[in-house]
Structure formats: structure tokens, C-alpha cells
Amino acid sequence: MAEFLEKELDEPLLSEGSDNSDDDNGGLGGVFADIDQQMLKSVLEEVDEFYIQQRVLLMEAITCGCVEQKNIYDIYDKTTMKKILIVREESGAVNRVCCNPNHSLFAEFYTLDESGAEMGAPVMTMEREGCDCGSPCPKPFIGCWACGEGCSHKAMLYQGDFSEAAKPGNMKGAMRDKAALLGATVQPITGGGFTPVLQIMERDGDDNEEPKLVQFSAMKGPTLFGGCSELCVDSVFGISKATDDMGVDEIKTLNIGDFAEIQKHKPDTFVGALREAMTDSDMYSVSFKEKETSVKQKANVLASMILIDYMFFERDNDMIRSDYDGTTITCCNCFCYGCICPCFIYISHHSG
């Protein structure tokens, strides 16, 4: 691992005018040619299994989510357990507190030097538009029935960083930077019914005026997840190769998991169980079954993992919550056409 992190690349990833062929650049094409984050390319080329740990945020844990802090994810090479990337959320404080987990946000990916310190500006940025307090609020009904654009999840992945003036969600569905576009993860209409489905897309070609997104894989997740079930079972999101013309019904017939797999892991220690019960901090692994997966595809799958964390596992007090009237114990959550419906037991604090 240290060898490829130390490796210096003196040549540009692609010269100007190169086509988007699956050459030694892993099918990356001209999208990364304008930036010098060779470290990111090296990491994604060499690693096929990633381990992701979401940091415990002390103030958020103490206040049981009343003070919602920005998420931070540490990404490791699962084989060597060396930290290779950090992902930091950027979002408005009011939106994050009032509209979490469906608020608009940026997830910024940083590479690290040998000491583990972040290197400069973000090398990739994912944007998830959501429901916000006041303007712009691009998706006011996100998290409800996935019956249209305004209530379906979508995350766009771009190379590099955005300007300081950029705010999550202020483009209201428009493409933020056509030249920097890498791909997208899209929740289809109906969301997959009772089985959550996400379509993962990559940029096809180097047309900066009208970049085209094509579906290269599809993800299928569990119907039941979250709540107290997080203490007992892993939540597995299988990913299969898919063609651009495949819809939800065809995706469900695929051999899901033959391309890649995302797992949200159950805790294996008592301390881990306490962390799971009292915080939003989760642990994931991302494994690629095909060793020839391109850099661009790996980048989009990692971004989709960040998206599913916000979609399914960022609910405050998801296992147990209590107030003056009673205590609610959530056994698990059920996915239903885009909605997340808790299956719970309610215990009243008052007799009679």
C-alpha cells in the first residue's frame, strides 16, 4: 500500500484530445485530465476492497441528535487497514438540524499524505439535493413516495471542488459543472417497490457541452433494515452490471452482487453495540468482485455508499426513543416505494 501511495506520476493521466477508451487509465477518460490528483487515481486503481468508518461526533451523541454535526467518513484499504481517503460533509447548519437526513449536502473526498493529513482541496465532490428550510429547497418531498423528481434521491459526482459561492441544492436539479461531471446515483420512480433500487451511472465520452450519463450498474438493497436489527444482522446492498436501457423490473432479475457489494456491518463488540445504539456512526465495506473495474466506476460506487448512508441509516434515535408519554422501540424499518416505515413497539408510561 505504501509503495503506491508514494508513487509519483510525472505524466498527465490523459493528454488533451484523448478519447474515453478503457486504456491504462482504467477507463477514466478525459474527465480527470485537467487535475493533478494522481494520488486518487493510484488509490482507486490499486484497491478493490474498502473499509469505511463513520466518525463518532461527540456533541451529536451527547444531545441525541439535537445538535446535528457534519458527517465525516474515514476510508481504509481493507487489506492493509491504512487510511487512504477522508470524506467530509458540507451543508447549512439550519438545514442539517431541521431537515436531516434529507437535507441538501456536499460530500467532499480528500486524499491523504503519508502522515495521514489531508492534501489540499477535495479531489471529488458529491452533491445530494434535498429538502431545505426556505429557499432553494430543490426536493421538498424527498423521502416520501418516489413518484417524481421532487421526491426521489439523486447524487451527482464531480471532480475537484466547487467555488466558495456554491451552496448545496442551489442549482435546483441543473448540472453544476458539465466539464467536471463524473457520474450519478439515481433512485428510479417507485424506488424499486418494496426492494430499494439505485441506478449507478458514469460519464460517457468527453463532450463538455452535453455530457452523457449511462447506467453501468444497479444496486438492490434489503426490504428490512435499521432499528434494533442493526445490532443483529449486516445490511447488504448488492451491485450488478447493468446496461443503460434496463429499468427496475429488469434490474430485479439480475444476479445482484456479482459486480460489487456494499455492506453495513453489525457491531461485533459491546462497545460497538453502544456506539450503534447511541450514535449515527456506522461501519461499511465496499468490495469489488471484478478486478478490472475502472477508476471512474469505483469512484461512483464509493459515492453511492455515502448516499445510502444518508438514505437509510442517518435517522436519529432509530432504535429507541422515549418521552413523557411512552417509549418507542423500533424493531426495524421497512422500505416501501421510497418511504421508510418503522416497525415498532410502543410502551406507554401511563397505566389505564
Which tags fit this structure?
352 residues, alpha+beta, twelve-stranded antiparallel β-barrel, four-stranded antiparallel beta sheet, 7 helices, 16 strands, disordered N terminus
Description:
The protein is an alpha+beta fold and 352 residues long. Helices cover 16% and strands 30% of the residues. The chain has 7 helices and 16 strands. It has a 12-stranded antiparallel beta barrel. The protein is globular.
Element layout with pairings:
Elements: H1 2-6, H2 38-46, E1 49-54, H3 58-62, E2 72-77, E3 82-90, H4 93-99, E4 105-111, E5 124-128, E6 154-159, E7 181-186, E8 197-204, E9 212-220, E10 224-225, E11 235-241, H5 248-251, E12 260-264, H6 270-278, E13 283-288, H7 295-312, E14 320-322, E15 326-336, E16 339-348
Antiparallel strand pairs: 1-2, 1-13, 2-3, 3-4, 4-5, 5-6, 6-7, 7-8, 8-9, 9-11, 10-15, 11-12, 12-13, 14-15, 15-16
Summarize the structure in short.
This protein is of the alpha+beta class. The protein has helices spanning 2-6, 38-46, 58-62, 93-99, 248-251, 270-278, 295-312, and strands at 49-54, 72-77, 82-90, 105-111, 124-128, 154-159, 181-186, 197-204, 212-220, 224-225, 235-241, 260-264, 283-288, 320-322, 326-336, 339-348.
User: Helices and strands: which structural class?
Assistant: alpha+beta
Shape: globular
Which spans have pLDDT < 50 for at least 5 consecutive residues?
Answer: 1-36
Number of helices: 7
Hey, roughly how much beta strand do the residues contain?
25-35%
Helix proportion of residues, in percent? 10-25%
Euclidean distance between termini CA atoms: 64 Å
| Rounded Rg | 20 Å
* Strand order in the largest sheet: 1-2-3-4-5-6-7-8-9-11-12-13
The H/E string reads: HHEHEEHEEEEEEEEHEHEHEEE
Instruction: Tell me the total number of β-strands.
Output: 16
Mean pLDDT: 87
| Biggest beta-sheet profile | 12 strands, antiparallel, barrel
